[in-house]
Structure prediction request, 349 residues.
Amino acid sequence: MTGNKQSEYAPIKSLLLRWYEEHLAALDEEFRNKDALLQAFADAAQKGGMGDAVREALERIGGAAPPVAGESHAERVYRAHLEFEEKETSLESSLDARLRTDTANWWRHRRLWEPVFDCLSHTKNDRWLTVGDTFGSDAFQMMREGFRNVLPTSIGGTFLEDSKKRGLIAEYRVENAEALSFADGSFDWAVCREAFHHFPRPMVALYEMLRVARKGVVLIEPQDPMIDVPQYTGEPILGYEKAGNYIYTISRRELEKVVLGLDLPVLATRGLFDVYYEGVEELPASDAIPQFLEFRRQTEEGQARCAQNLQKNNYLLAIIYKQKLQEVDVTRYNGYWKITAYPGNPFLK
Prediction:
């Protein structure tokens, strides 16, 4: 670049440097090479307006793009999630890892699913909808358990199509959980496992699931540490994930208010303690492996502490029934579950 060109772009570089200091300094650990970042902005700036330049530069370094004109906050989260799916190469091998039944990750997912399977094993002939099922792995796991009619859905179809090509699922639908296209009561049940916390407006998604499900909705999600006893008493935990979402945790009390507001008859919940760290996807679930024994020990000891109310379960399993208690087989629920039948709104009778 000639001296004249350097002089011409010096103000732009100065402006970008100031913008970096004000807005990106906190990301310095991830983007250690400041000169490379500034050069990415400068290169993009020569191609068009600053809006496009910033967006293109951020895409080049793997960051989240800023809002598109006219885009709502919720739409921005949707877009960030889809872009994350497209760019995150680790997701390409995630389906293979999820299908393996000999890993610690399978062991922990089995722990999350098993109480629900036990309570709802009599619904295997019902029509089920999985929501936020990125890979279709929830549907696949349910069908492996004998559930015969399960339709997986997700906001993106890339990985669902891959699962279909592999023969893991017969069909799927690309659906926004907050605006499901199905008619009221199209399914008997809807289930959302470890996806609800990704949604920008999760309660909208819950009402949508309750709308399209005739019998009830199942959630398997991280539990809010600050609501219900024992409560976490420190500062609020502000958790975000790489996909661009805030981690929206749930609580029994929050779900109970939904049930009461809609005058629904029954809510069943139980807590579960879960351990996860990077690498469990490949960790063999074998007693011959010391790392797995340690992983299981941490899980079991955590569960024991929760049973003594020394700490709180970090997962909540919930079944919101639209059926009356008389239609619910309560004998399937063991002592770990809390099941409540509500008398109904007296002013609606």
